[in-house]
Recover the amino acids of this structure.
């Protein structure tokens, strides 16, 4: 499975965890809620849905706005996709993962979108991993700029600075999020601070 398809499957499972949807609605939610999917097409989504159905993580249900009129009018019934019990369990397993893949540009934004369903210790590991990755990137960018500054024209230099500033802003944002989590102000959706697991034992940047 490619990294891109893995991110899409995670996002689809996460959105369907909230409620069943038909393909058009699901694509719209992916476009509007998760920016990383703004450019993807039906040709990408439907093979993903078929794969998840075949794996038993989604179920297809046929519906129609007007079940009596549809057969007479020859209208195609809509297929609604619903998360199965196995799919929910699989999504929970994915939520618990906090390794390096979760820190990368494409995956991080999608993982962050579902932080409301993620345990706090996992959230902390993902945030700290992302910050570490960006700090490494920022150090390399500064070193590269110091070596090449004199050979760059003004516009290329400004582009380099813009990229560095974008990374610096995200690092500051991550610092604030991490501090909030450490202070216990971060809350998973629908879960009071004293419930769930024992918390004592949690934008596209220039590369």
């Amino acid at each position: 499975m490619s990294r891109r398809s893995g991110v899409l499957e995670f996002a689809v499972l996460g959105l369907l965890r909230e409620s069943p949807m038909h393909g058009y609605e699901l694509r719209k939610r992916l476009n509007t809620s998760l920016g990383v999917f703004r450019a993807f097409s039906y040709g990408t989504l439907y093979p993903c849905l078929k794969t998840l159905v075949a794996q038993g993580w989604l179920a297809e249900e046929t519906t129609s706005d007007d079940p009596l009129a549809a057969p007479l009018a020859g209208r195609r019934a809509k297929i609604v996709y619903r998360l199965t019990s196995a799919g929910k369990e699989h999504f929970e397993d994915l939520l618990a993962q906090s390794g390096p893949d979760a820190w990368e540009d494409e995956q991080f934004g999608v993982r962050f979108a579902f932080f409301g369903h993620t345990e706090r210790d996992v959230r902390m590991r993902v945030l700290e991993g992302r910050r570490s990755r960006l700090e490494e990137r920022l150090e390399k960018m500064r070193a590269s700029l110091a070596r090449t500054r004199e050979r760059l024209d003004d516009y290329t230099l400004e582009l380099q600075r813009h990229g560095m500033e974008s990374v610096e802003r995200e690092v500051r944002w991550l610092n604030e999020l991490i501090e909030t989590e450490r202070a216990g102000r971060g809350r998973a959706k629908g879960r009071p601070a004293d419930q769930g697991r024992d918390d004592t034992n949690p934008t596209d940047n220039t590369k």
Remarks:
- The longest helix spans residues 120-148.
- Residues 117 and 191 are 9 Å apart (CA to CA).
